[in-house]
Design a protein that fits this description.
By secondary structure, the chain is an alpha/beta fold. It is 39% helix and 20% strand. The chain has eleven helices and 13 strands. The strands form three sheets. An eight-stranded mixed barrel has the order 5-6-8-9-10-11-12-13, surrounded by four helices. A two-stranded antiparallel sheet has the order 1-2.
């Protein structure tokens, strides 16, 4: 691309052509955007470097949000040598095609980076919690987008699975099984995000019966919007009632996700309140004789829930890139939301079991 740009700049006759003028304008705009991006990344990075050097300001690092004024002040006072070193790292990452978040994550390997609402949150990795023990090269995707375990551990299942709801429509479970699907998590129901009404997924019965008939192991999940322990208990009882009479080999799952809007009924809950609700659901289904599990993404398990209280609970992590970024122990990995499986006409979530 560089040679192409030099050719355009050196040939004055090309400027007579309006197509080439527009091309030059786009190139200039892209270069300007790249410069702005470098500056933004530099602002975030310098804030964290200075915080590491100043023990009295460690709490600010844990909060992870930095004002624009603070960042500019730090950049103005930064030493030239450190600036050049960081710029070199950033430039190399951008030139190699690494996303901005990926560059930041490589520079802060002892922290979990969350990009949310135009801000970056840095959460220190808790070394006291059970760690994700997989190496980056332990998983690979084939040409069909199916994730496989390629490591040497004999205790890793590597089973292929999916999770489904009404959005997948009518499923031919025999075809899904023939395509290698060994397990499925089926949505049992959900609570509304505004009024909090509870309802069963209209395809739940057909899905669980079809999966069983095809020899596929089954677990279920409930999309939670519980605002307290009482509502979480209601969701657990709803789930337990729905699975009566079915052979459930896999966990009953509470699905906790970030609200889509600030008006969602759970948007103002604290980390403690959400954790209380999640544990209430899990303990209730465990007391009924089932396994429990929590579904969420990296943001769920770092900003929304207190991981120090969830060591005894299995985790189902949603993360769509390689290598896996979640630093803690997990049982299932949802690695795609746009998978394709025989017998399903729509995109479907793909999962792998690692235990």
């Amino acid at each position: 691309m560089k040679k192409r740009y030099d050719h355009i700049n050196s040939d004055k006759n090309l400027y007579k052509n309006p197509v080439h003028r527009r091309t030059q304008i786009r190139i200039t705009a892209l270069r300007l955007l790249a410069v702005i991006l470098l500056i933004c990344i530099l602002l975030v990075i310098y804030r964290n470097i200075r915080l590491r050097k100043e023990n009295s300001r460690i709490s600010a690092l844990e909060e992870g949000y930095y004002s624009e004024e603070e960042l500019y002040a730090l950049v103005e006072n930064a030493e030239g040598e450190g600036r050049n070193e960081i710029l070199s790292d950033i430039k190399g990452g951008l030139e190699s095609g690494t996303p901005v978040s990926g560059i930041l994550r490589s520079l802060f390997s002892d922290q979990i980076l969350i990009a949310r609402d135009g801000r970056y949150y840095f959460v220190p990795i808790d070394k006291n919690l059970r760690a994700n023990s997989f190496a980056d090269k332990d998983f690979e995707k084939n040409d069909k987008g199916i994730l496989t375990y390629t490591g040497s551990r004999e205790d890793v299942s590597g089973a292929k699975g999916i999770d489904v709801a009404k959005f997948q429509g009518d499923i031919d479970w025999e075809k899904a099984a023939a395509d290698g699907v060994e397990f499925a998590f089926i949505r049992v129901g959900n609570r509304g995000t505004s009024q909090g009404a509870m309802s069963e997924d209209p395809n739940f019965a057909a899905n669980i019966e079809g999966a069983h008939a095809a020899g596929i192991k089954v677990g279920v999940y409930y999309f939670s919007q519980a605002v307290d322990e009482e509502e979480a208990y209601e969701e657990a009882l709803f789930t337990l009632e729905a699975v009566k009479g079915y052979d459930i080999e896999l966990p009953l799952v509470i699905d906790i996700e970030r609200p889509d809007t600030d008006s969602s009924r759970t948007s103002g809950l604290s980390k403690e309140e959400l954790t209380d609700a999640a544990l209430k659901f899990c303990h209730t289904v465990e007391e009924a004789g089932y396994k429990s599990m929590i579904y969420g993404n990296v943001e769920t398990f770092t900003l929304m829930l207190d991981m120090t209280r969830l060591e005894d609970i299995e985790k189902w992590i949603a993360y769509y890139n390689l290598p896996q970024y979640f630093p803690y122990d997990f049982t299932y990995w949802q690695y795609s939301s746009t998978g394709h499986v025989d017998g399903i006409d729509t995109d479907v979530d793909l999962n792998i079991c690692v235990k």
